Amino acid sequence: xxxxxxxxxxxxxxxxxxxxxxxxxxxxxxxxxxxxxxxxxxxxxxxxxxxxxxxxxxxxxxxxxxxxxxxxxxxxxxxxxxxxxxxxxxxxxxxxxxxxxxxxxxxxxxxxxxxxxxxxxxxxxxxxxxxxxxx
Length: 135
Description:
The chain is an all-alpha fold. 82% of the residues lie in helices and 0% in strands. It is elongated, with a radius of gyration of 17 Å.
């Protein structure tokens, strides 16, 4: 698939995704870029490590900025996202995998929790018992 076709597909996928689908896409990217950064650090590929860490940091900033702070859980997520960002920054400055090894399992756990929450929302919506609120 050419880059232009891939970009068009990706843009369409983002435009047609549900809010919970977009959230999971962000987590997928965060996991992918964090893993790629880790591999690049291990290989000594500093430019690639930096690029992937910056992408991961950008996603964390987006996750943090989209929180609705009127919900109690948002404050806990904000603190967690701040910690993720600091550890990604540390990994980038030090070119160390230790901060990434610290946060990656937690990012993956959160991703799985959001996938499960999205599944429940879809199930409730299909049964007509949804609240009409997104994840």
